[in-house]
Structure formats: C-alpha cells, structure tokens
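Subject: for your reference before the review

Hello V.,

The reviewers asked for a structural picture of the protein, and I figured it would be easier to keep everything in one thread rather than splitting it across files. Below is the amino acid sequence we used in the manuscript, unchanged from the supplementary table.
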Amino acid sequence: MKTFEKILDTVMRFLLALSMFALLAGGTWQIFSRMVLGDPSTFTDEFLRYVLIWASLIGSAYCFYRDEHLSLDLIKGRVKGGAAVALNIFIEAATLFFVCYVFIYGGLKLSMNALNISSVMHLPFTFLYSILPISGVFIVLARVLKYAQLFAEKKGGKN
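And here is what came back from the structure prediction:
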C-alpha cells in the first residue's frame, strides 16, 4: 500500500509541476511576445487556458489526496460520537458518488462526445475534457487509499 501511495503522490506531483512549468513558460512567452516583439502570440492564450484548467483539476485531486481540500464543517464540528461517524460516512459516500457520477461518468461522456476542434491549437476538445475523468480517478484512488489506511489502523488497534 505504501508503494501505491508513493506512486500516486509522485504522479500527481509530477503532473502539477509540469503544468505549473507550462503556465510559467507560456505566460513568460506571452509577455515577451507582446511587450518586446510587439506581436502577441495567439497560441499562448488558448494554451494557457487549457493548462490552467488541467492544473486546477489535478491540483484539486491532489488536495483530496492530502486531505487539504476546502470543506464546510458547520455541522461536522458540533456532532459527537456515533452521529459523527454516521455523518462522516455520509459525507464520504456523497463525495464519492459525486466524483464518480460527475467527474468520471460525466467527464467520459463529455470527452467522448466532444467533436469540436480548438480554433488556434487545432486540438480536439476531447483532449481538454479528458482531465475530468483523469482527476476523478485520482480523487477516487486517493479516497480509497485513505479508507484502506483507516481500516488498517482500526484493525491494528483491535489486536
């Protein structure tokens, strides 16, 4: 399980670093071409839009993996005991349902049916939308890994 966790962490961090580098390089080129060359690059505007979407969704999956995502805990902090356990199970089940249905299922349907081509980069929108199921799978893997670790801790604590 530790090997899988390390691989998942490495892959997500690599994709985040790559997308951040692409944002930095694309933004620098856009500024250079506009200010120094006097002819703004049309490619970088669309490129940066795509990379920002990818970075945001991979970043949100990484936040889920690290348990550092935003959460509204107005009720969660006031509930104790068995009700807190039931609430946590409900929250996790609702999160998994949403991610599986919207990100993975909806993202797959969207990316498979996206037949348009981007105007500047001439890439199919399938490429842009494919990040939805990819980040959804990362989120589900991160949550399943967390559940496995919690189960192992509980099982280890009973012995």
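For the response letter, the relevant points are probably these. The chain has a mean pLDDT of 89. The chain has one domain: 2-158.

Happy to draft the paragraph if you're swamped.

O.
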